[in-house]
Structure prediction request, 239 residues.
Amino acid sequence: MLFSKKNRELGVTEIAQELGMYKSTVHRILTTMENRGFLQKNPKNNKYWIGLKIFSLGMYYSKNIKFRDIARPFAQKLADKYMETVHIAVIDFDKEEGPEVVVVDKIQKAQFLSMTPPIGSSSPAHCSAMGKVLLSYSKPSILKEIIKRPLKKYTDNTITSVERLLEELSIVRKCGYAIDDEELEIGLTCVAAPIFDFDNEVVASISLSGPTPRLKPRIEKEIIEDVKSTAMEISRKLR
Prediction:
């Protein structure tokens, strides 16, 4: 396999040597694949790694990677317990406006009346619980690129200060969960935790969302631990 754990990122020369092709030809192919989201290039070293589109296609063809099949029973159990909406999302770093979380699965309960993002939709990472979880486990080089962009304000609770965001991401990493306290939408509260793969790398985040008056009183009592334990159960199944 060209892209593997051992060779996480590869340059044009390395890929050309592996494939036995001319560098000019490989460069054209890589550029096309990058433009279409199948590969992503690290701006620091100009090396390539698989892009989010590969993951997205794999998610649609879940019989092959089994991620949704593995995660859904646990997500369903969490949604049933609280009768609120559960999302599972990954992160896309390639957006010009900044990183976004992409919903790959969703379980919505009848009593949740507010609008929630459908499968396949995306939202800014800096003002969502799932986004903050995924950002907190990102490489320092990626975070350095993020802080160069302005953080858009959506509500009075949205974090728009780079310093405050980095401070919160540090806390999220230590605690193992994040909270969206009406940072993207007034009246909506969300708790999220990371999902790890067999390499102990964060591949997704799971969240429980609901109206603030209904969800917030129960956050500290039980929701945080339940969301974290659900993420851990999914992680164990992926290992």
User: Anything to note?
Assistant: The domain at 65-238 is CATH 3.30.450.40 (Beta-Lactamase). The longest strand covers residues 202-211.
